[in-house]
Amino acid sequence: MKNPDRTTVTNLEDLPNIGPAMTRDLRLLGIQRTQQLIGKNAYQMHRQLCELYNKKQDPCVIDVFLAVVHFMEGGNSAPWYHFTEERKKYLSRKS
After folding, report:
1. Which residues contact residue 63 at a Cβ distance below 8 angstroms, ignoring those fewer than 6 apart?
2. Are 42 and 62 in contact (CB under 8 A)?
3. The model's pTM
């Protein structure tokens, strides 16, 4: 499947790495449109999602958030797991 054009895509589920479950999570976070992802902090989004579910969410969700924010801010589309190392480095500095 061809990557969407970030300047015209409006449906969350049309973004790379976003399926039905992540679309629900993004909507739960109050994100209804793709452009709302610009400037978001993936780590804060994850923390908020954990609070909303009242349960620790998988850290890989951060990777998905990093990937989709990166894409919407002009970066290349990449699989979510390409952001795992970035997350691990960031979280190791925070502990």
Report:
1. 80, 81, 83, 84, 87
2. yes
3. 0.93
Q: Which amino acid is at 30?
A: G
SS3 label, residue 70: helix
25: tokens are 């999570």
Nearest to 12 by CA among 51, 69, 56: 69
What is the C-alpha separation between 32 and 55, in angstroms, rounded? 23
CA atoms within 13 A on the CB side of 58: 10
Q: What is the DSSP string of 9-67?
A: ---GGGSTT--HHHHHHHHHTT--SGGGGTT--HHHHHHHHHHHHTSPPPTHHHHHHHH
- The domain made up of 12-94 has a fold known as DNA polymerase; domain 1 (1.10.150)
**Tens digit of each residue's pLDDT (9 = 90 or more) over 45-81:** 999 999 999 999 999 999 999 999 999 999 999 999 9
